[in-house]
Amino acid sequence: METISKAIKKKDHDSKISGQALYADDYVMNGMLYGRLLGSSKARARITAIIIPDLPEGYLVVDKYDVPGTNRVQIIQDDTPVFAEETVEFVGDPILMVVGPEYNKVESILENIVVLYEELVPTFNMRKADTVFFDYHYAKGDFDKAQDEADHIFEETFQTGHQEHAYLETQGIIAYPHAGRMVIRGSMQCPYYVHTAVTKALGYDARNVQVIQETTGGGFGGKEDFPSILACQTAAAALKTNRPVKVIFNRREDMAFTSKRHPSVCTYKVAVKDNMITGMGIDLILNGGAYTTHSSVVLQRALISSSGVYKIDNLRVAGRAVKTNMVPSGAYRGFGSPQTIFALEMMMDHVARKLGTESLEFKEKHMVKQGDTTATSGKHHFHVPLPEMIQRINELTDYPAKRKRYSRQSGRYRRGMGLALSFHGCGFTGSAEGEHIKPVVRIRKAADDQVEILTGNTDMGQGLKTTFCKIVGETLGIPFEQVLIENPDTDRVPDSGPTVASRSIMIVGSLLQQAAEKLRQIWQTGEEQIVEEHYVEPKFIIPFDLERFRGDAYPTYSWAVNAVEVEIDTLTAETRILGAWGIYDVGVPIDLNIIQGQMQGGLLQGIGYAAMEKIDYNAQGIIRNNNFSDYSIPTAMDVPNLVTEVINNPYTHGPYGAKGAGELSFAGAAPAYVEALENALGVDLNKVPFTMEDTMGVLREVHHHD
Amino acid sequence: MVNGYQARSLQEALDILSSEAVIPYSGGTDLMKKANGNATYLFLNKVPEMKNIREDRKYIRIGAGCTFTEIIESELTPAILKEAAALVAAPAIRNLGTVGGNICNGSPKADCALIFFVTDSKLRLVSKKGERVIPISEFYLGRNHTILQKDELLVEIFMNKTGFENYCYKKVGARKALTMSRVSFAAILNMADGKITQCMIAFGAVGEVILRRKEIDDMLIGRTIPEARAVKENYLAAYEQAINPVQGRISAEYKKTVCMNLLGDFLDSKGI
Amino acid sequence: MISFMLNGTKVVSTARANEPLLNVLRNEFHLSGVKCGCNEGECGACAVILDGRLANSCMVALGSIQGSKVITIEGYRTTERFTVLDMAYASVGAVQCGFCIPGMILASECILAKNPNPTRAEIQAGISGNLCRCTGYNAIVAAIGIAAKEGQGLW
């Protein structure tokens, strides 16, 4: 183990464990008003009238007329309105905000506002959607020829569902005018995204907006775009009232009206010759919901990841993100790739079965290795450690033997074992870092020789404050305690890019290491010194052409092998997880505890995604299970000890050998879980979530045929 | 400021209940879910007469105000009740929620109410005017709807002292904790001199009220195992007809399949 | 007026009897360590120790706790037992976003108070009402086990 990997007490440990850390809802300011949003009750409609009752003194309604700049939220595009304009596009689409000194009164005013709608026909079925937000395709080799020459062609369609982030702290923003400027504080992943959006909505000069991240109670992608929307609304309210305004979502609002993982439908057509896959045709639809938010980039990653860890010479890949009248889908750990990796892993498994080979053996025959081309005709520049990872998981789980043993069972309880191979492309897709983000970091040494890290990156629980300080402390050769880091404040920190895409350690951490190295060389005890570092794309990268999806989509990849063992009670279709394992390559862990936490947390989110988390829309487009009682996430009793290990495979261009980690742990869980169900049930399955009811459906079917 | 009454004795509680418009508050875990700023509660959680678990000559008498945790920790409560209480939600709810609330809330999913049904327990209802003891099967009129009068409190539950050892209990939820019953099943079968003396079955979460059909179970009473086997088909057919779950977020088909599977398995386990 | 013992001090609340204890603790007594994750008794972020037992404070009406003892993380963090849990949680990095942690710590205390040497299954059951979306629970379960070992005699 590298020295830097040794776990230490996290920077934010003391304040959090003692309950002293302040989250957005914990701030109370003088004269503060409370805001609540009125969302559309229709999935698609024209607003014909809004009838507002007489408001008591001190209470106000804020709507599209109160947005002084542009009534649009700048995300990637700007189709998301701050407040609804002529139409509403999903149930919950924000129409207005009521603000006032007492939350209960605000709530009762809200209940008495009447919105008249002229209803329009909504679209909920992504396969029948007529608005295509984004449409991408790319190819490699000649898939037509591969089909012509194939011994077999297999085709199958797979589906994945919505997933709620379910961070424990709901969305929350405070906005207040201060000295002619607007200050935003709150729960968020990307202060500079919020900064850009609020600047545009208010029509302010960028210098007059200040965004400060408060302690953030979990994100997982869910606080990537949504805080920009809420911040624009809250800022408009603060401007109109000239008072601080606080908006904290209750759990039901948060679950019903904020972004989710994109549901998908994905069809794989596979050409096989001599028992080897020679080509794949992949067609993906992502349900983007009502507005585009992050759908373009989610779709890109989903498509680029769609042939996963396999070397497929002839590829034809196409995908669309379409509009439906559902809550806008957005970023969520894995960012599109879990959807295609699920479909791919199941397809590999099914093709293997049809060819009479064992799933893992078949997958192993197709794995990429260093030097191979990627799906986008880029290159796997570095060692691919999958073989040794598979060997390790076999040692830990006895996978091949168990898999065989479980393939023929009778009796009430039936076990199954599944395994999935996955990867995560580290950092932003394509050339975004160099062309759009252009991250900057700063390190400031004070006269007392305390060193402060200044970046726009946020710690939302993933441990970034600790890992950044370790990198800088180690490089400077000074104690961890001598390195300070605060929650980012756009008045104080440069834009080092958002905290997304498993980029923070690899990209920003690298810049910090370089900056620290510079500072070390010019270190003057007792003097204030500032070092700034700008991103330069590594030389080895084959430039990515987004038009053609060609080149290195990612500089490198993190790798994962997951296994899940289940036991099904055939009387009730309840499925118990007997074991869940993950072997991960994240380069060198900057902190072993932190990496273990990321791996285990992501693995369990993935199991939830596969087994129990299901958003239940009714025919009117209303999410019926908008609470923790009806939308179940795993409790401590739903999992055994999660066994996760990291292997040593230093990344030469990452700080101390580190590369992307946070998202990697998610994708393999769902296919491993469903493969385990298949092993137990003896059938092919093709969707997640695969719930108890689904399992019962299979059991009834099997029984029927007995 | 009259927005709540703390009763310190049953008498005081009944006095307030008969004269004021109050909502009886036992553990609060169902009431507080639907936050109601206008509610005036009659707090019963410190009424000693409702907190006891004791035995008399005939019954185990469980105070309606006993929390699920108190049920689990008591030496007197039967294992079948403890098992159901231990599967309610999670500790921080089990420490508040009470068996009385579980019954009076009127949900067909109520975990402990199922056990009181399958054990043919009785409820002691008390008002200022007097009291009555009724079988739990007569308590419910429908979902969230009971015969409890406005001035009446459920004070105790009477369970027989023996006869519940040979039980089977199964709760099926969305996950292993913090979950409501999607289907629940409880069954007791006792034999004496080679004949079935008691067969008691109850299903939760499959209708407006917990399902307990004595007349069907009576088909097996007085029979030997082989004799019971001979009527098994009719017995199962009767339940097949009796179980008609309401279509909700959980499919009726799923619920019914689980019910019949669990019932069939229970009979199998007894050699029937 | 409801009076109760809050973190060892007698207090009187002027809030309505039907007010959730969670709101009273946060708004009237400014105990912001008590977190609101769902307000429906489904997540455990607002858990406190009420008369020696773990309770979700969103599910408790103020009027029901006349004369009761309430301990929140603000009171508990001054104890020796907290220090043991604090070190145990730190040693495995069990604190990520931190939002579930005050409730989780109080749940840990209640597990160990009842059983100083809990099994893994007992620990899992003891925190089963405290949702955590970050850790996968491994580190938290491990931390409670470590605290049990390190805190010999304290519980």
Could you explain the architecture of this structure?
The complex is a heterotrimer of chains A (706), B (272) and C (155). With 706 residues, chain A is an alpha+beta fold. Helix content of chain A is 28%, strand content 24%. Chain A has 18 helices and 26 strands. In chain A, helix 7 packs parallel to helix 8 (337-355) and helix 15 packs across helix 17 (669-681). The relative contact order of chain A is 0.13. With 272 residues, chain B is of the alpha+beta class. Chain B folds into two domains: 48-160, Uridine Diphospho-n-acetylenolpyruvylglucosamine Reductase, domain 3 (2-Layer Sandwich); 167-269, Enolase-like, domain 1 (2-Layer Sandwich). Chain B has helices at residues 10-19, 68-73, 79-86, 91-94, 99-104, 111-118, 214-217, 225-242, 252-269, and strands at residues 4-6, 23-25, 41-43, 53-55, 59-63, 122-127, 130-135, 140-142, 145-146, 152-160, 167-172, 183-192, 195-204. In chain B, strand 12 and strand 13 (195-204) form a beta hairpin. In chain B, helix 3 runs antiparallel to helix 6 and helix 8 runs antiparallel to helix 9 (252-269). With 155 residues, chain C is of the alpha+beta class. Helix content of chain C is 38%, strand content 14%. Chain C has helices spanning 21-28, 73-76, 80-92, 101-114, 120-126, 138-150; strands at 2-6, 9-13, 47-50, 53-56, 69-71. Chain C has a five-stranded mixed beta sheet, with helices on both faces. The longest helix of chain C has 14 residues, at 101-114. Chains in contact: A-B, A-C, B-C. Chains A and B meet through helix 18 of A and helix 9 of B.
